[in-house]
Amino acid sequence: MDFIIGGLAGAGATIFTNPMDVVKTRLQLQGELRSRKEQPRQYRGLFHGLYVIAKADGVLALQKGLTPAVVFGFCMNSVRLGTYHVAEVQGWTQSNGSVNVQKSAFWAGASGFMSGLAANPMSVVKTRLQAAAHPSVAVGRQHMYNGTIDALMKIYKTEGFRGFFAGVHASCIRLAIGSSAQLTTFSIAKETLLSHGISTNSRLCLAFLASALSGAVVSAVICPFDVVSVRLYNQGAASKGDQLYKGVFDCLKKILKTEGVYGLYKGFGPLYLRIAPHTTLSLVIWDMLNVTFEKKR
User: Fold this and answer.
1) Cβ distance 270 to 30 under 8 Å?
2) C-beta separation of 209 from 199 below 8 A
3) Pairing of strands 98-99, 94-95
4) Per-residue pLDDT tens for 175-191?
5) How far is it, in rounded angstroms, from Cα 14 to Cα 55?
6) How many CB atoms lie within 10 A of CB 113?
7) What residue spans of 160-247 are helical by DSSP H?
8) What is the pTM of this model?
9) CA–CA dist 22, 144 (Å, integer)
C-alpha cells in the first residue's frame, strides 16, 4: 500500500503539470550544441512557449506525452515515495526521535536512484513524444510516433531493449540528487514548522507549506542533470551513426563547451513551475493518503 499510495500521488500531480514539462523539453532541446549567439529562438520562454505550441500544434499539444508521463509518474513515485515511507516508518531516517539529515538524504537518494531504473522507459517515450512538433517550431531530433504503444514498438525495433534505457545514468543521478533534496527538505521543513507551532492543527496546510519549500530547493539542484537527461533521451539509436553524446559526462562537457553554463540551465523557468507545483501536489497527496490509510488501519 505504501508503494501504491506513492504512485497515485505522482500520477495525480502529473496531469496538472504536464504542459510545463512539454515547454521545458522544447526549451532544453532548442539550440542544441550551438553557441548562444547562433541559437534559433523558436521559444523565448515559458509563456511564449505555451503560446507557440498552442498556435502551431494546437492546444491539445500542451498535453503531449500525457499517457507515458502519468505512467512514469506512477512508476517513479511508487518506488521513490514508497521506499522512503517504509524507511520513515521503520525509523531509518531518524536519530533520537528527530529527522537525521544524513540518514534522510541517504534513503531519499537511494529511493530516487531505484525509481530512475524503474521509470526510465516511460521517460524516454514521454520526452520523444513531447519533442515532436510542427516543422516550423521543431527542435532537436524528431521521432515520428503515433502514441505510446507505437513508440514502445518502434524503439524496441530500431534500438532494442537498450533503447528504453537511454540516458538512464543521467536519470538515476538526477532522481537520486533530486529525491535527496526533496524528501529531506520536506521532512525537515515539516518538523521545523511543527516545532514553531505552525500548522499544528492542519496536516494539509503543513504538507502544503513544507512541499512548497522543498520544490524551490529541488529545481535549483537538478536542472543541469535534467537538461542532460532530455538530450540523451531524445538522441536516438547509435546504429544511425549520428549520436551527439556518448554518455552523461560527454554530454555535460559538450554543453559547457558550446552553450556555456546557460545551456545547463535551459528551461529552468518551466522546470521550476513544473517541479514546484508537482512537488506540492504529489507530496500533499502522498501525505494525505498516508494519513487516511493510517486512520483506516
Assistant:
1) no
2) yes
3) antiparallel
4) 999 989 887 888 888 88
5) 23
6) 21
7) 168-195, 203-234
8) 0.84
9) 16
